[in-house]
Amino acid sequence: MSHKYSFFGAVEKSFDKAAKFTKWDKGLLEQIRQCNAVYQIRFPIKRDDGSIEVIEAYRVQHSHHKTPCKGGIRFAAEVNQDEVMALAALMTYKCTIVDVPFGGAKGGIKIDPKKYSPIELEKITRRYTSELIRKKFIGPGTDVPAPDYGTGEREMSWILDTYTAMHPGEIDAAGCVTGKPISQGGVRGRREATGLGVFFGIREVCNMADIMAKLNLTTGVEGKKVIVQGLGNVGYHSAKFFQDAGAKIIALAEYEGAIWSNEGLDVDSVFQHRKKTGSILNYPGAENFAKSGDALEMECDILIPAALENVIDGKNAPNVKAKLIGEAANGPLTPEADEVFAKKGIIVVPDMYLNAGGVTVSYFEWLKNLSHVRYGRLEKRFTENMNTHILGQIEEVSGKKVKPAAREMIMHGPDEVDLVYSGLEETMINATREIMETWKENPDIPDMRTAAYVVAINKVATAYAELGIFP
Ligand code: GLU
Fold first, then answer.
1. Is 178 in the pocket of ligand 1 (CB under 6 A)?
2. Residue 1 has what pLDDT?
3. Is 164 exposed, middle or buried (CB count within 10 Å of its CB: 0-12, 13-18, 19+)?
4. 70 lines ligand 1 (CB under 6 A)
5. Strands, DSSP E only, in 272-344?
6. What is the mean pLDDT of residues 142-167?
7. Which one, of 233, 453, 190, 460, lies nearest residue 329 by Cα?
8. What was the pLDDT predicted at 78?
9. In angstroms, what CA-CA distances link 436 with 266, 333, 348?
């Protein structure tokens, strides 16, 4: 019998590894570990050619210790219950580490979206939403979906429209889903949020002199050689923020293959090339790798797997030459890979907090929806007037003029995107430091993932204890 990889099993394994470093009651740990509610759905849709197809879909709520539950919906041919359960559990830990007051959830529809027309996709999304409404598995105070692999703003709009149509007069209805277009109540900065969070998290690790010394690397992101696997929303934006900060993107990988250049690749121009030719391969001046996975094994400082789970396992982990691995995807490494890297002294910055930028900005979007006002609307002009006044006073007292570039920067009152970026930056820096502190306080913790789980378990368990459920 062939052994099938269980993603939820891997999450449980990591959880158990970390639970040993906490002092919580066994029963409470079990309550945290399990999925609270699993909703498996089958519904028919009529395809464009008239045939009828039965669609398999899921929504899993892993934890209700805080509500609403929160997590994306993915459209992928590989979707299965085990995967959605694992992703929902990761959402619980992710939210708690970045202090986002939600329980974890995840949804999945087992389809390859490339094989369906937009009309078919709309039918599927709307029917799925209706099924969630029927069982109260969606709502601004119960469960709030978001984009994930294979979904984006368009799908979130369909979800919102279906929900509002069936909840007339519900004033907070826009908060039933996040990752919406701006015109539908979305927040500026959500699209690039996960990639930006990945960048902020890794940058913070790169600024830690002791960690970098251990890895034999200089501090700072500038000049670091980076490889990114996946040019979807998360991979593209991560790569772009690293490039903008002065890192060198030496390889990019997609499922059709990978490209490499020691001089560094321009992320936008590779993206355009792929859009035009349909493939990442044959990018001018770069070397081709027919096997996408080969890019994971190239020499580099930082490796960012930003595609799907389970891409680095016990088999290829020994060939990975990166010194720092940033898990932008959910679950790209198996527990066996973790063991290989811990032994080699390679630091793995774990998914469940590194890719929390998406849900953090989703939280900001949800708050915006509940408050019915755009960020910055009230204070932007006030701040600009105040800054102008302060500048005037400085110039008068000092008798000198501030340079025009500095003047612009000082006077600027915050726009929505400024506030979202700065809220995200603060969140990612704090989370990175908290995990590292926990790791340092307990040298027996073998890796950063375990330290992150310890932080997460302690926070969820404290919340349960404070609820008075387990006195
Ligand atoms: N799908 C993203 C994740 O895995 C975002 C979830 C959200 O914004 O709720 O974290």
1. yes
2. 38
3. middle
4. yes
5. 287-289, 302-305, 324-326
6. 98
7. 233
8. 96
9. 32, 20, 12
Residue 2 has a pLDDT of 42
362 lines ligand 1 (CB under 6 A): yes
**Centroid of ligand 1 to alpha carbon of 179 (angstroms):** 9
Averaged over 173-193, what is the pLDDT? 98
> What is the structure's pLDDT at 4?
76
148 lines ligand 1 (CB under 6 A): yes
Q: Among this protein's residues, is 4 annotated catalytic?
A: no
Residue 313 one-letter amino acid: D
Tell me, what amino acid is at 458? Answer: N
User: What is the predicted pLDDT for the residue at 174?
Assistant: 98
Distance 178 CA to ligand 1 centre (A): 9
pLDDT tens, residue by residue, 360-410: 999 999 999 999 999 999 999 999 999 999 999 999 999 999 999 999 999
Quote the crossing angle between the two packed helices 404-411 and 380-398, to the nearest 10°.
140
Where are the extended beta strands (E) located within 35-157? Answer: 37-46, 52-61, 69-75, 103-109, 143-147
Q: Measure CA of the first residue to CA of the last residue in the chain; give whole Å.
A: 45
Cα separations (Å) of 37 from 64, 88, 103, 199, 226? Answer: 9, 10, 12, 33, 39
How many Cβ atoms from other residues are within 10 Å of residue 387's Cβ?
16
Per-residue pLDDT of 445-467, as tens digits, reads 999 999 999 999 999 999 988 87
Residue of 17, 106, 110, 368 with catalytic role: 106
Q: At what angle do helices 233-244 and 193-206 cross, to 10 degrees?
A: 40
Q: DSSP alpha helices (H): ranges in 245-348?
A: 267-277, 335-344
Burial of 430 (0-12, 13-18, 19+ CB in 10 A): middle
Which domains does the chain show, CATH number per domain? 37-184 (3.40.50.10860), 187-379+414-471 (3.40.50.720)
pTM above 0.90, yes or no: yes
Protein residue closest via CA to atom 8 of ligand 1: 359
